[in-house]
């Protein structure tokens, strides 16, 4: 039944409880809340479900977008590759026409130089082959503005007219005969260069550039071949022809070297060509002779030999050119195949993601529902745990001071403390033994419970701590466990005592409404030792002679009187505002440590009242004397004894009447005399 209640302790207890409650609330919010939302509410569930669905939805959408972008990039790459294929086809067509015109130019030069001889096949077959290539060519829009190249028909007409003149030897010289082909090849090669430059970002731009440079090298070397043939056939070159030879020969070598730099295997093939072509050394020697420009005797055989050697050399370079073109086509085919594979894989991944996404979202939704149900259960259990913890803490703080309880909860050792000045309050009920004998145990418990609940509610207003209750004894102290400043603890106990005494005057005994409950109160101020005793049911207990003296003040007091010691009076005098009256000296049994005889004379006082407003109990002097006489007069005890004797007499009369009825019944059954 014992517990602690003190105004300061109540505030500290409330702060501790509120702190624990705040920590628990934070714990619940962290576990069950998200972004300040409670997922156990209807709106919170919906928002929480949306948040949980958003978690897998974001990466799924990111994956879909990524695959979509990859698909777009792959399709864009395929589109670019298709453009590259188209441009390569155009470049190949231009290259084929250029090669045919180069070969036709060589044949015509040889035809004019030999006055009608042909080298490989007759000119008609050569013209037909070139015409077929021109017919199959997708005619481009040439960068160089030339009326003859505006369309395919005009070019064919001009080409056929030139061929007719050649076959009829209607040309002033070989230079004039090849000039038309030089102009045509220049325009075709310029367009070829333009087509390749437009696609220089593709994966085949290096072999395409090598292909272009090799065609240009063959073109310039073919032109130089005509002037070389003229040199050996005539024995000398004029200044213009010599410059044309040197220029075209140098450009041919430069383009050939540039072509080798774009692919290592082209360089290897060219070195192989130098080693395997038997006429290569002859070509190099004849080339140096032409560059030296030494006037020689015309030699038709040497001119023919040079022409055959150069023509074979150009054919070998064209084979390398064809190989480059084949590799370009293979590279494009490989990249297109790889691109198609990427498209298929991308479509497959996108299809899988689209198929799996609804399943993932459904599973997440089910898991979220389960988590929300678990969260509700966990939150409910947390609330129950918090509620039970509050109840247990409240009970613990009623049994022990909050500071001591906190130390015990933290498994710390609570050491006993010595307090130099503490005010102790004792009270008990006058005549409690006789009252208990006339009442049932349940009535006694109801009486004490009602009285102590009233006491507990009132002492909450004061800086006091309830130590314990034993039977009808009620013990309170002030000045601990928080040490009181000065003598204010004595004033707190005195004010509380007056309040309790005033409240007791109006207290009604539940099962005896006509009875007036009387209490005695004793107060003493002095040193004590306080500490926690026991481990099974630890109690905060006071020890010391001050406890005994306070108990003696209560036991030697009078009903409706507050009996205090001189030390308490001194403390109250320092505070001021209290009305006290000397009772006199009294013999108080003390411990041998305090008094060698075990007895001591002590001057005691009555605490009458307090200056100020009620509920402090205040009476006048004559009223106090009247109460004192009333308390000393044993009239109340005699009345209780008289009522008890009356009850005994009524019981005896009831038993006599019962015996009398039994005798009358027996007489009725006896035979009459």
Automatic annotation (TrEMBL):
SMART domains reported for this sequence: CYCc
GO cellular component, one term: plasma membrane
Record InterPro entries: A/G_cyclase, A/G_cyclase_CS, Cyclic_nucleotide_synthase, HNOB_dom_associated, Nitrate/nitrite_sensing, Nucleotide_cyclase
Gene Ontology molecular functions: adenylate cyclase activity; GTP binding; guanylate cyclase activity; peptide receptor activity
Biased composition (Basic and acidic residues): 634-673
GO biological process, one term: intracellular signal transduction
Spans through the membrane: 343-364
Intracellular or extracellular location(s): Membrane
Entry EC no(s): 4.6.1.2
Top enzyme category: lyase
Chief subcellular location: membrane
Keywords for the protein's UniProt record, in alphabetical order: cGMP biosynthesis, Glycoprotein, GTP-binding, Lyase, Membrane, Nucleotide-binding, Receptor, Signal, Transmembrane, Transmembrane helix
Bilayer disposition of the protein: Single-pass type I membrane protein
Pfam families for this protein: Guanylate_cyc, HNOBA, NIT
Statement: the UniProt record of this protein carries the keyword Transmembrane helix: yes
Keyword field contains GTP-binding: yes
Domain Guanylate cyclase: 423-554
Region (Disordered): 1-21, 613-673
Similarity-based family: Belongs to the adenylyl cyclase class-4/guanylyl cyclase family.
Name assigned to this protein: guanylate cyclase
């Amino acid at each position: 039944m014992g517990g602690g209640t003190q105004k300061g302790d109540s505030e500290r207890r409330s702060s501790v409880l509120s702190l624990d409650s705040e920590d628990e609330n934070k714990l619940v919010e962290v576990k069950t809340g998200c972004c300040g939302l409670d997922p156990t509410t209807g709106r919170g569930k919906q928002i929480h479900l949306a948040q949980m669905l958003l978690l897998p939805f974001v990466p799924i959408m990111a994956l879909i977008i990524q695959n979509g972008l990859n698909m777009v990039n792959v399709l864009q790459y395929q589109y670019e590759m298709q453009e590259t294929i188209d441009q390569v086809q155009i470049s190949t067509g231009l290259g084929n026409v250029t090669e045919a015109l180069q070969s036709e130019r060589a044949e015509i030069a040889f035809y004019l130089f030999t006055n009608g001889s042909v080298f490989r096949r007759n000119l008609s077959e050569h013209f037909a082959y070139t015409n077929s290539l021109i017919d199959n060519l997708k005619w481009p829009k040439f960068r160089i503005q030339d009326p003859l190249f505006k369309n395919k028909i005009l070019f064919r007409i001009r080409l056929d007219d030139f061929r007719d003149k050649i076959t009829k030897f209607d040309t002033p010289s070989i230079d004039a005969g090849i000039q038309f082909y030089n102009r045509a090849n220049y325009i075709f090669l310029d367009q070829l260069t333009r087509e390749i430059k437009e696609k220089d970002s593709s994966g085949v731009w290096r072999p395409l550039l090598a292909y272009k440079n090799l065609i240009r090298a063959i073109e310039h070397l073919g032109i130089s071949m005509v002037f070389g043939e003229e040199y050996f056939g005539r024995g000398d070159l004029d200044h213009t022809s010599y410059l044309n030879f040197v220029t075209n020969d140098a450009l041919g070598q430069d383009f050939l070297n540039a072509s080798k730099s774009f692919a290592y295997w082209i360089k290897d093939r060219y070195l192989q060509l130098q080693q395997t072509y038997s006429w290569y050394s002859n070509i190099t020697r004849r080339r140096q002779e032409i560059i030296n420009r030494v006037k020689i005797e015309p030699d038709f055989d040497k001119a023919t030999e040079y022409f055959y050697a150069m023509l074979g050399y150009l054919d070998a370079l064209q084979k390398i050119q064809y190989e480059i073109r084949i590799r370009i086509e293979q590279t494009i085919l490989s990249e297109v195949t790889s691109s198609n594979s990427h498209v298929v894989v991308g479509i497959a991944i996108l299809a899988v993601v689209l198929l799996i996404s609804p399943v993932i979202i459904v599973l997440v939704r089910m898991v979220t529902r389960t988590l929300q149900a678990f969260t509700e259960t966990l939150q409910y259990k947390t609330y129950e745990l918090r509620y039970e913890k509050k109840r247990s803490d409240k009970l613990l703080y009623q049994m022990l001071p909050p500071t001591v309880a906190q130390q015990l909860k933290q498994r710390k050792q609570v050491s006993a403390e010595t307090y130099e000045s503490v005010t102790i309050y004792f009270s008990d009920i006058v005549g409690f033994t006789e009252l208990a004998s006339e009442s049932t145990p349940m009535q006694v418990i109801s009486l004490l419970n009602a009285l102590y609940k009233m006491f507990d509610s009132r002492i909450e207003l004061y800086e006091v701590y309830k130590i314990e209750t034993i039977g009808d004894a009620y013990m309170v102290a002030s000045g601990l466990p928080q040490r009181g400043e000065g003598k204010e603890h004595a004033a707190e106990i005195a004010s509380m005592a007056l309040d309790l005494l005033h409240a007791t005057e109006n207290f009604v005994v539940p099962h005896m409404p006509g009875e007036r409950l009387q209490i005695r109160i004793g107060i003493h101020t002095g040193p004590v030792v306080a500490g926690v005793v026991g481990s099974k049911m630890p109690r905060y207990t006071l020890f010391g002679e001050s406890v005994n003296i306070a108990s003696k003040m209560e036991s030697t007091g009078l009903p409706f009187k507050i009996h205090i010691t001189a030390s308490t009076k001194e403390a109250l005098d320092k505070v001021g505002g209290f009305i006290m009256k000397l009772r006199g000296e009294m013999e108080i049994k003390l411990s041998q440590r305090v008094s060698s005889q075990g007895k001591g004379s002590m001057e005691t006082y009555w605490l009458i009242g307090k200056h100020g407003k009620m509920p402090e109990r205040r009476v006048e002097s004559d009223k106090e004397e009247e109460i004192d006489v009333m308390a000393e007069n044993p009239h109340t005890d005699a009345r209780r004894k008289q009522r008890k004797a009356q009850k005994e007499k009524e019981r005896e009369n009831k038993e006599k009447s019962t015996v009398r009825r039994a005798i009358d019944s027996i007489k009725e059954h006896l035979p009459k005399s």
